[in-house]
Specification:
Blueprint lengths: L8 E6 L5 E2 L14 E5 L1 H7 L2 H5 L29 E3 L1 H7 L3 E6 L10 H14 L4 E5 L3 H13 L2 E7 L4 H8 L4 E5 L3 H15 L2 E2 L5 H6 L2 H10 L7 E5 L4 H15 L9 E7 L4 H7 L26 H11 L3 E4 L1 H15 L5 H15 L8 E6 L24 H9 L2
Helix pairs in contact: 3-13, 4-5, 5-6, 9-10, 10-12, 11-12, 13-14
Length: 415
């Protein structure tokens, strides 16, 4: 029960100046344009929430609802989350490390990416705020998730995407009956258009005016990692970065869990992974600065990470600095190898963003940023079935034979 029927989340707060704001559909401070984030009553949460209470609840991301920004009961995406945390023994042996885990959000329900987490929170909150129309700017996975959850919730939706997105992701939005708008230009131009549409039509854009609520959904991947590891914080966590938000929210999840007594507070490191073809955060980190210079024309097969102006890049860099983490980026060829490593050693077909995470983790292990005898978690965020063109032609060709045992033996058994 929430105390006196009131929610555990209290206000929105500017991350820069600390000014408090009401719990409305706003996302930036009117004084310094700093991003707003959710403030919780951690004392009340600590008095109520316990490991046993969480473990007795249904296996979804909403088992941590006290630490999520909804005032009433959640209403959208009730089955989302609690994806497998897999002990990756074969991949660990290949990478030469002792204990490796894969948090597999490529099987998250219903649209096979971690975006179902953030959209569940954003649309639950959108309904509380009275929105009838929801929308997003997306590089693909978010569009799929907004379309699916809006359909299930009976809400009208629009999704705005770069016009050259993978066709699998376009179809995976259209099927839900949403209005898909392909915009000529990069994701940053799509996002700029969406800011104008918010001002004119007042819709609930999950990653614009609903962003403070939306971003909190990413914390649930962190809470689940802790619980599935037996309520302990891993030494190293590696997350891919587009806006940089996921990395910062995994950090927030670990912090909050320690604050309310769910885990013991210990040192940990969070590392970032980007594609070289769009690596504004990685480049700034390498130059030892928090000034993130935009990439105007991203060129990478990891289209879901192709955000040239990362909204949380500054905060991602500071998170890595604070935790002793590091950052890497990888070429398209290395991304494909990363996808193949994950598929061939663990049977997980991830989208290119997953290849980025694996390939960057390999570099971080080889350069000593991640110790080989530590506990390591890799966050895999999307499914490869939606981006098959990325690895088309990269695997062994199909061998066609006549329907006879002799033909089989000749092809496979005789040399």
């Amino acid at each position: 029960m929430k105390p006196n029927g009131k929610p555990y989340f209290k206000n929105l707060k500017c991350r820069e100046c600390g000014r408090l704001y009401p719990k409305e559909a706003i996302h930036v401070c009117e004084f310094d344009f700093g991003p707003l984030e959710v403030v919780y009553d951690y004392r009340a949460i600590k008095e109520t929430l316990s490991r046993s209470l969480i473990e007795a609840r249904p296996r979804s991301m909403w088992r941590y609802e006290e630490l999520l920004p909804v005032e009433g009961e959640p209403t959208v995406g009730l089955q989302v989350g609690f994806t497998p945390l897999i002990r990756a023994v074969r991949l660990a042996a290949f990478l030469g490390v002792k204990e490796l885990w894969v948090k597999n959000d490529s099987v998250n329900h219903p649209t096979l990416s971690f975006k179902d987490r953030v959209v569940s929170v954003a649309l639950s909150r959108a309904k509380e705020l009275g929105f009838q129309v929801v929308a997003c700017a997306s590089t693909g996975n978010l569009a799929n998730s907004v379309a699916a959850h809006a359909a299930a919730a009976g809400m009208k939706s629009y999704v705005f995407i770069p016009h050259n997105l993978e066709q699998g992701k376009v179809l995976a939005s259209l099927v839900y009956g949403t209005r898909v708008v392909g915009v000529r230009g990069s994701y940053d131009l799509v996002n700029r258009l969406c800011l104008e549409i918010v001002g004119k039509y007042g819709w609930g854009f999950v990653n614009v005016n609903l962003r403070p609520y939306y971003a909190e959904g990413s914390k649930t991947i962190g809470f689940e990692i802790l619980e599935q590891l037996g309520w302990r914080i891993p030494d190293h966590t590696v997350a891919c970065m587009a806006s940089g938000s996921l990395l910062t929210k995994v950090y927030k999840a670990y912090q909050e869990a320690a604050l309310v007594g769910l885990v013991k507070e210990i040192p940990f490191s969070i590392h970032g992974a980007q594609a070289t073809g769009c690596s504004p955060i990685s480049t700034a980190f390498r130059q030892n600065t928090d000034v993130v210079k935009p990439v105007s024309c991203p060129q990478t097969i990891a289209k879901s990470l192709a955000i040239g102006t990362p909204a949380d890049g500054y905060y991602a860099i500071h998170t890595m600095w604070k935790t002793g983490g590091s950052c890497e980026d990888v070429t398209d060829e290395e991304i494909i190898h990363g996808m193949q490593f994950l598929a061939e050693y663990e049977g997980i077909f991830a989208e290119p963003a997953g290849g980025v995470t694996v390939a960057c983790a390999k570099k971080l292990i080889e350069n000593g940023s991640i110790l080989r005898d530590s506990t390591i978690v890799l966050c895999i965020t999307g499914n490869g079935l939606k981006t098959q063109e990325a690895v088309s032609g990269q695997s062994e060709a199909v061998r066609v034979i006549e329907p006879s045992i002799s033909a089989f033996d000749k092809c496979f058994m005789l040399g």
